[in-house]
Design a protein that fits this description.
11 strands, five-stranded mixed sheet, 243 residues, globular, single chain, alpha/beta, 8 helices
Length: 243
């Protein structure tokens, strides 16, 4: 069994989500054996030197325990935790994956991404994304004192919230033409992504070929959303299942 989740946005301000995620790691994830986290695991990640933060340490310990139990955990960068680096990977036992990531199983092929790179109609966001993903900007940011980075991250988050509130829809959807090109370029594989917080299954017809696009939902204090591949079917689930 392979599980997929995205957009948990773990932070001290959402302790319920952290608790749900740790229970998820100790439950369904251990039974599955393979987990892919498709971006925004953390609400913010200011650098791997913040691993000692108590909340971060608790989450990393949960990931490490699942990894040491034999679970393969792959992590993609999101627009909130794009600074996750090798020290995080070593401490957690996770593997940081390049985007897009092709996941081939004996039965099927998937292409995994956070999804924000295809939200091309949101020009303002793409400008910000280009800056944040620039190695020179990241190097300069990481050179700042940790507390200053924490304050800057909070400021950027506040600006993002204000920008979202000014829009009719907080999250832009993926641009249709760019998405079809993406599906074509990646062999018409089933596409799984997050970012938009709009869980759904979309049917694309690209060059006469039917391709599915599955969008993961974000996690809340009361429940989370994940997908499971059992070798035959991809299905959506709610965690905890009883909620």
């Amino acid at each position: 069994m392979i599980l997929f989740a995205s957009d948990l946005h773990l932070s001290p301000q959402s302790p319920g989500v952290t608790g749900l995620f740790l229970d998820f790691l100790a439950g369904p994830v251990r039974q599955a054996g393979e987990l892919y986290l498709l971006g925004d695991l953390f609400e913010a990640w200011i650098g791997d030197d913040d691993l000692a933060d108590p909340d971060n340490a608790r989450i990393v310990a949960g990931l490490r325990a699942a990894s040491e139990a034999g679970v393969r955990i792959g992590v993609l960068h999101g627009n909130r935790d794009f600074l996750l680096g090798p020290e995080f990977a070593q401490a957690s036992g996770c593997q940081l994956l390049s985007e897009p990531y092709i996941l081939s199983t004996p039965e099927w092929q998937f292409v995994l991404a956070h999804g924000d790179a295809l939200c091309l109609d949101d020009l303002a966001y793409q400008q910000v994304r280009s800056q944040l993903r620039d190695p020179a900007w990241q190097q300069a940011f990481l050179a700042r004192p940790r507390e200053q980075r924490r304050q800057l991250a909070a400021q950027m988050r506040a600006q993002s919230i204000a920008s979202q509130q000014a829009k009719d829809s907080p999250y832009s959807d993926l641009q249709a033409a760019a998405t079809d090109d993406f599906l074509r370029d990646h062999g018409y594989a089933t596409f799984i992504h997050g970012h938009t917080h709009q869980p759904a299954t979309h049917d694309h017809i690209v060059d006469g070929i039917h391709v599915e696009r599955w969008v993961l939902g974000d996690w809340h204090e009361s429940h989370g959303d994940y997908l499971a591949w059992d070798g035959e079917n991809l299905t959506r689930h709610r965690w905890p299942a009883s909620q």
